[in-house]
Amino acid sequence: MAETAESKWSQLPKDLLHTISKTFNTDLDVISLRSVCSSWRSSIPPLKKKPPLPLNLPFPIAPNPALNPNRRGHFSLTQSTIYILQNPNSSKSTASKPWLIRVEETRRGKLRPLNPLSRILTENTPVAYPKSLNLLDTRISEIGKAYNLEFVETSKSIDREFGELKSILIKKAVVSSAPWIGDDYAVMVIHGGKLGFIKLGDGTWSLFDDPKQCDDVVYHKGKFYAVDYKGRTVSIGLDLKAKEVTGPFFGRGGGQSKQLIKSFDDLFLIDKYMGGQEIDFVLGEYSECELHLRVFKLNEEEKRWDFVDMLDDQVFFVGDDCSYAVRAQDFPGLRGDCVYFSDDSFDGENESLGEFCVDTGVYRLVDGKCEALSAFRRHSPIFWPPPTWLSSKSSGSKK
User: Fold this and answer.
1) Are 351 and 329 in contact (CB under 8 A)?
2) Is the peptide bond between 386 and the residue preceding it cis, with omega within 30 degrees of 0?
3) Closest among 123, 99, 98 to 112, alpha carbons compared
């Protein structure tokens, strides 16, 4: 009977399978569907990337007197995807630790692992890193995407001068998760502290003077939201006009770095005090402080950021070029009310944990503790090393 049922599934009409596959939005879902049997694999085409990546975009973004007039090239937009891997055989009462990974598809079509919270590249992929994954015995959930805009030089070898780096280096790139106008997607980047915008298919970039010194940008509810180092926030919609969402922080919120994170329907802000001095914008005073974070939630109706002292079941991952959020209840083994983030100051403290979490820190809202990942040993298995249940399956599976 089991064989008969299986054969019936494999004989589903090709047009029906093709229709079913169109309801899936991620590569992972379509790959899982195609892996059921050879008949399904031949009937279901791979998911077309939206937008199609990697993609070439014009260079430069803005005029730069220091740019060598003979410098030629373009920007290449690439994508990396963040996944959480779980043991499908564990229950909530005996949950194995989930594992967080980030994989980038390079310009040459190859896959390479990245630090989940930054673009730090290792010279060699660690030996313990899985060479393959069997989608049939691993529960994999896609939780976020990140983008990178890299300059590709096509001119003859020309030494780069310091002043040219302003045109070449991009702090962050964000792509609209839905078409901007018609079928075209849009890209927003932080370039020299300012925002650059382009609709895919256009030949030139549009520049924004507001905010003047941008710290972060995200795509949220059909708009781009950008924040400066004082917490002042603007949104940019289809009319391409920067509209103020909130003014700068006063009193609490004087950290030196602001990062945005979407959590389902809400937008949050992580205010990072880099250690050394805390700024009180009301009194205009500085005071000594350790590295720590504060969390705020956008109240768009009141045009302000509201201080948050607990995240309940939410877990935030805040990197230097991406951010994403999940609910702990969806991933047994994760701890809610926590923010995982990257900071260079942790490099020395996390060396024993491996290269994929060398700059990772943890902020627990319940007690206000903010330290290197190595100080929270119960949290570190989320990042490294690969879980034993995965290692045993990878070694036993066919490559």
Assistant:
1) no
2) no
3) 123
